[in-house]
Amino acid sequence: MKTIALQLVTVGLENGQRGVFIGVPLITENSANADNLVEDIWFSNIQEVPDHLTVANLIRLVREESYRRQAKLH
Q1: SS3 state at 3
Q2: Does residue 71 sit within a domain?
């Protein structure tokens, strides 16, 4: 079975609310070093996606959006 590496990021607010974000890991055990410290965090606009979307399709959409945003910054 083919697998996809995912990482959950939980953000807790002072009022007790929490949000969970799913993404592709940026830092792995093999790449952990001082050059991989977090510098910025961006949140995208909220987007509606079909509820039948698979995890693989969701990751593909997230990567495509990430590449588009990165291209706009450079």
Answers
A1: coil
A2: yes
